[in-house]
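Hey everyone, long-time lurker, first post.

I ran two proteins through the pipeline my lab uses and got sequence/structure pairs for each. Pasting them in order. The first:
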Amino acid sequence: KPALLITAENGENVLVVADLHIGFELELASQGIRVPSQAEKLLTSLKQIIRDYSPSRLILLGDIKHEIAKISPSEWIDIPKFFNSLLKEKISVEVIPGNHDGNIEPLTPRAVKIHSVRGVLLKTLKNTLIGLIHGHAWPSPSLFQAETIVMGHVHPVIELRDHMGFRMVEPVWVKVKVSTEELIKDYLKYRKIKFSESSIDAFKETFGFAPRTENIIIMPAFNDYLRGAAINKFQRTSLLGPLLEAEIMHIQASEVYLLDGTFLGEIATLQRLSVNSEL
């Protein structure tokens, strides 16, 4: 499943999923494509994971709803029902809003905690820090204490073809290695903080700690109807959000994994295979 289970410092399990896009069927319907509501299917799948692994917390990494600027009639019905059903599982439900989650507050029961779009910092049982964010906005400076930031937003997939030309598109996890120096340089520019030499030193002087972020993990969308950029046909414009648009990625060396954990290789290798398969 496209879900992440983290054991927090107090021993509780924290379940993390991203990109539900409840109500996306209306956009397809406007294009003449009829797809039944997937809200119940998403809920059933999520509840099964909760019952299998007994997490104490569920953190949704944004884009719970699909409409960006408004709330559709189906979202008024499906999203409150979705949250209320999850709360019956005796689990803490938390939301880090995404770019599709404008005006989501009226749709959420009071028991659902809504965090800042700037993300959440989570300490694990191994005393490491993980940053959690949707990915459409810059994180809070506190998240740069984490060596790894986990985000959604992109819906990464890999496109595969066999020798007969049959095409498969599979959701994947992507582990991106970043340059901390370049990442922080772009962040300081965003914050309009001037520096002359080391961005690391300037950040530490401003915020009181040295940034440690070295990896970004991009989660696949929990809604398996959604397909985003095929990472083996990568174009820089295909990736969205300041963390990925910044010139900080060692994108060719990024590692790609299927949902079952199978390591497919680095993006550079997968791109070469993709080109060769089309010759």
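...and the second, right after it:
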Amino acid sequence: MITQLQITHVRNLAQISLTLADCNVFVGRNGSGKTSLLEAVFLLSRGKTFRHHEPKRYISHHQKSCTVWAMTGSDMLAVQKNLDERQLATTVLKLNGQTVTTQSPLTYALPVLPIDPSGMTVLEEGSHARRQMLDWLTFHVKQEFYGEWLAYQRLLKQRNLLLKSPRVRERAGEVRAWDNQLAYHADKLHQCRQAVFERWQVCFDEMMGRLLPHYQGDIYLSYQAGFDDKTGLLSILASRLGSDMELGYTRVGAHRADVMVMLKQSGDGGHIKSQAVDVLSRGEKKLLITALRLSQLQVMCAYQQIQPVVLVDDIDAELDVGAMNVLLGTLLSLPCQLMITSLQDETAEMVAQKLSALHESRTFKKFHVKQGDITPDECST
């Protein structure tokens, strides 16, 4: 949980310093800076914003750097993005005053989950976004996962470099030399992912019963390892070495894993399986995405000691009243910190009332956002 937050030069947020509560609602017009605030928190945890990867896109105009700093119950975190004369970026990361060289310590110390019902990327684009969802969850639930992931990525990079090299067929023995370790770490990644996926599937089915009850049991998650785990990656790599040499990269492996959202329908001769995104309406897709995110959060809260921060942008813009009540009821029942934005004061009042009814001890704050300035509401506690 973030107790203190400072933001400098992120979009239209020039200089912001906030003391946060368990549940925080930020109210303001479009373009006031509400989403920029959530982007800054995401940047601190993930090293990028959920809108852009390039710092020049979110550092304030006419500025050469931006900084986000936060104090949690146990850690102090900071990220600074700097631009040089050519608009190239460098990054400085700090955890408890010490410079760190990778983003992962900050990601682990400050788990942040955005819930955006309108974000169709995970459903409509390739496997990368869906694999990221599973890997983010596995990273926080399985401590050994990140080390295995790093080892696999290093080995995969070396193998692919060899596959791209001139006269690669004369170096087939060198390629095979990487395969044992690559297959070993792929199997470890698969075991971690499979264990977390099984927990996620249970929570997802429960959440579908609350958000899309008429699809419960028919819409389900399907995990694919990226290779046939019964055959084993080592055998597959050996059998496909020739085609990998022709292509110049490794076609199968843990880097090709995917989580598909499938729909089972009755048809002539039995059940027909298809991707849910191809069948559902836009409104149903929003609820499906919400179910995916909320079920992720349920798994994480059950197996992670660190309290996650949940970002919900424009909570009343994408969901109807019934779905919003399910969303709020679930979020407020879990041990997480909430940062919610809205256009309406009434939404903040509703959140405060629901929180008070569920948890008298949890704190609430309402903030007003106007032209990049964020001030606490004097009446909120």
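Reply from user beta_strand_b:
Welcome! Quick read of the second one: The first strand starts at residue 2 and ends at 10. The longest helix spans residues 172-211.
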